[in-house]
Each structure stands twice: as C-alpha cells, then as structure tokens.
Amino acid sequence: MYNLTSTAFNREKRRALLGCVFIFFLACPALADTITLKNGTERKGLVVEEHTDRIILSTEKGEIPILRRGITNIVYDEPAQNFLKIGQEYEADNRLGEALAYYEKAQSLNPGLAEAASAATRVRNRFWAGLTEGPRDEMERKQELYDAWERGTAVNAFERKKIEERKRLRDGLGLALGKSGEWLELESVDSKKPAAVAGLKKGDRLTAIDGRSLRYLNETAVLAQLLEPRFTNFTLEIERDVFLPGHVSFKALGMKLKLEYQGLIVRSVKKYSQAEKAGARSRDLIVRVNGEATRYMPLGQVERALAAALGADERASLTIRRGALLARV
C-alpha cells in the first residue's frame, strides 16, 4: 500500500486560499471558483470536494453541497483545473484521445495535480482494455440484458449479474463489500488474496478509485469500477481509523506531521514507535483528529489536540486515507 493525494483535498493552493474565502472573500473574488446554476445564479468559493452527484463548495458562509444536476458550468481559478474539466467532458463522451491530451496538458501546467495524473492513467487503462477485451464482449453483455427485458426476466438477470460480480471480486481481489453510511466498506478481506497483500483490512472505507470519489455510490456502481476494465491497474483509496494509545506524550509517539497543499500529512513515523504500532504510516493523509475535520485546522492546533488527549490518558484517534495499487482480473 502506498499513499496518494486525497480527492477531497487535492487542489494546490487550496489551504492558503481558504483564508481568502473566510477573511478576504469580497476583496479577492478572482481567486474563487465560480459555479453557474441552471437558474442563472452564480456561487463563488473553493471547490473542496467533488463527487459523482454533487460538489462541496467552501464559501464565506461555510461549506455548501451543490447537486450536479443543478449546475450548468464550473470555472476554476486554476488553468490546470479547467483543462482537467474539459478532459472529463471528453472522457464522458468516450473521446479518449482528446481526453488524454487535456489531462496531460493539466499535468504539465500543474505537476502536483493528482486528479490529472489519475485521470490520465485511467484513460490509458481504458485504451488497453479496449485492445485486450474489445467491443464484442460488451455488445454481447448488453444484448443479454436486452433479451432479458423482452423475456420479463430482467430483474433476475441483474441480480445474477450482481452475484457474479461479487464472486469475481472475492475470487480475484479477495474482497466483499458492505454499506457504512455514505461509503461502502470492506466487509471481509481474504488474507491470501492481492487486496490483503496490498495492505487492505476489514472495515476500511472505500473513498476513491483512480481519483474518482466513491462517496454516495451504491454497491452496483462501485463493483463496476472495481472490476472493469479487466486486466488493468488502478489505485483504490481507503479511509481508516487509527487509534493512538494514551499515557504517552505527543513527542513520544514517534510521528511528525506537516501541512501540504492536499492537507495534513504524516511526514515520518519512527520504526517500532507507538505511532507505527497503531498503524500510522509515512505519507498518510489525516482527514480527522478525534472526529474533527482537519481541512481548516492549523498544524499547531492538531498537535495541541493530540497532546491534550494523550496527556489526559485518553486514546486519540486519527482518520487517515491512503492508497493501494491493485490489478483487475
């Protein structure tokens, strides 16, 4: 398992600009993303999360969820983000060559934009899958569903398909999924299969695949992304709770933190330290401390919160995100 930039905190300059949103919002509108709604109104702020059905916009009034079905356009303050958006539109139309060109342009403008790198890898994988699997298999699968609808057995056909996909996931990666609030989580992980070897554990929450958020998606949608296109690599981002023991000082944990553009990062973890024993790893992205989101939390506040909890002989909790490189089978 290795670490990656979280999809929820992946804008370069975002942490610095959040101060602009709350303190100087009216004085520096040029630094804001602009959301145009179908009713003609505009919302300005910083897009801090992007999901399949909605975006989260950080404004001077707080974070606002906006459903995508009510949005006509998004213009980002960073040129790279706009190239990324155009690439996503081309990819949605299955124009993969154009999509890849725009993703690579976004990468060249902002090498630190993890979304662009993940998207480019995803499109290359789709090219590869098209060469190895071809369109014929997909056409045959669709025809089977159409035939099932005509026979009045479509529901059974879809249920059988889901059962088969669950079995493929268990037999291939060694995973079984379960629902946990807004996320799907790993209900079981076969210790002898690739997912366990990559470091995944029972109870891990699935947050993204190749940079695309899985929040709010149902099992059918997530299964499709885990299994297709076949014979390609992908990065699965997970979220996990790590519990640090009490009775120790923050310094004695053996863990150092730092702020980067994607958020609060574990800079280093000493070997055999309390932090390592608890499950913390270098380059983990910390999204919550003792249940409180770190998006707007200064580094000093994080360290003080941890020191206070540990000093009171309480167990401190970190919610971390990290990625695992897997291969579809």
Q: Which features does this protein show?
A:
329 residues; alpha+beta; SH3 type barrels; Pdz3 Domain; ten-stranded antiparallel sheet; 10 helices; 15 strands; 29% strand; globular
What is the rounded distance between the termini? 18 Å
Low-confidence stretches: 4-29
CATH class of the largest domain: Mainly Beta
CATH-defined architecture of the largest domain: Roll
Number of domains: 3
Order of SSEs, N→C?
A: HEEEEEHHHHHEEHEEHEEEHEEHE
Q: Structural class per helix/strand content? A: alpha+beta
Mean pLDDT: 83
* Helicity level: 25-40%
CATH domain fold name of the largest domain: SH3 type barrels
Label the overall shape: globular
**What gyration radius follows from the Cα positions, in whole Å?**
21 Å
Largest sheet: 10 strands, antiparallel
Task: Describe the 3D structure.
The chain is of the alpha+beta class. It folds into 3 domains: about 120 residues, SH3 type barrels (Roll); about 100 residues, Roll (Pdz3 Domain), CATH 2.30.42; about 80 residues, Roll (Pdz3 Domain). It is built from 10 helices and 15 strands. The strands form 2 sheets. Strands 6, 7, 8, 9, 10, 11, 12, 13, 14 and 15 form a 10-stranded antiparallel beta sheet that branches. Strands 4-3-2-1-5 form a 5-stranded antiparallel beta sheet. Helix 2 packs antiparallel against helix 3 and helix 2 packs parallel to helix 4.
